[in-house]
Design brief:
The chain is mainly α and 86 residues long. The chain has a single domain (5-85), classed as Ribosomal protein S20 (Methane Monooxygenase Hydroxylase, Chain G, domain 1), CATH 1.20.58.110. Helix content is 83%, strand content 0%. The protein contains 3 helices and no strands. The chain has helices at residues 5-40, 46-62, 68-85. The longest helix is centred in the first third of the chain and has 36 residues, at 5-40.
Length: 86
């Protein structure tokens, strides 16, 4: 357990950030999973779900939850699958 006031404050900050990061990461994973499922079946919502996944990845990068190269790699893979599906 932390002994100093600054260490206690740091623990509180870390817990808040952990919860926020977990929520953002979960949203990204769900969006990417939905986009991949939409790409597997051809439909009208395919482009929209891929766009939503890309938007979620960009937001996660902005918040510092996902590394920019990781997001770029995932976005590129989704774009390749979308192009191949057409």
């Amino acid at each position: 357990m932390a002994n100093t006031a600054s260490a206690l404050k740091r623990m509180r900050q870390n817990e808040r950030r952990r919860l926020r990061n977990r929520a953002v990461r979960s949203k990204v994973r769900t969006a990417v999973k939905t986009a991949r499922a939409a790409l597997a079946t051809t439909g009208a919502e395919t482009r929209a779900s891929v766009a939503e996944a890309i938007r979620a990845l960009d937001k996660a990068v902005t918040k510092g939850v996902v590394h920019r190269n990781t997001a770029a790699r995932k976005k590129s893979a989704l774009a390749r699958r979308l192009a191949a599906a057409k």
